[in-house]
Amino acid sequence: MNTLTSSTPEIVAVPRKRIDRYWLLVLPLLALLAVLYLFPLLRVLWLSFSVPQPGLQNYARFIDNASVHRVLWTTLRICSMTTVISVALGYAIAFAMVHVGPRQRMALFFGLLVPFWASVLIRAFSWLFLLGEQGLVNNTLMALGMTDEPLQLMRNPFGVVVGMVHFMIPYAVLPLYSNMKGIDPQLARASQGLGASAFLTFRKVYFPQTLPGIYGAGLLVFIFSLGFYVTPVILGGGRTVMVAEYISTQILQLVNWGSGAALASVLLMAIVAVLVALSRFINLRELFGAK
Fold this sequence. Notes:
This protein is mainly alpha-helical.
């Protein structure tokens, strides 16, 4: 009489000493990160509490400082607009990349990654020639008779947002494309096969599955936008001051290390607070691809 036996795979225990040796390989990297990132952050925090004298006076000044309030509000407003526009445009581009053929997808990828070959300084200056009073946009509008005089497209929030959106679109597209690529197309076909319209299928079936990509892209764009310096300086022209430019002015021009370090610390704590708040509603580990 034959008997069927089921064999279970044996679990091979890894010696603890071998695991400890693996950690030794990571120690140089951790030491490098500590030197390059952790130590400067601690140094900035120390300066915010110790210069010009120990205490909380650098932080207390922000409470009644109208210029700081204006800079923070400008930064929040511009970063929010940049995030919304970048994610909206990135969603459309990622959707097209998923649903076109290989050649068209390659062309879209090429057009998306070309800006990475130029520095942020060159990209910001290119917008000067496009949005200036004698730039391509104004000359075209006047040639078409749509305006009698050049429009003020720079040295205001509009120009800053345009430049920042141009820089941030790739960072919005890539998380969205990765998310959309993992959606099973059979779900949409099944929905339409059951009688749902294309719009209803998109709203009820497809769009909810892209929410993790939207959250990830929005978070990435917003956090990157908070630290923008070159683009607001060039396209803002000193009239649209964001927090990074204000910190630079405090440290490099006014030599006010304490206030500059304190504002930089506030910016860092704001980013951490955003991540902590989102972690209560979103699994950040899954959002950024951790299993």
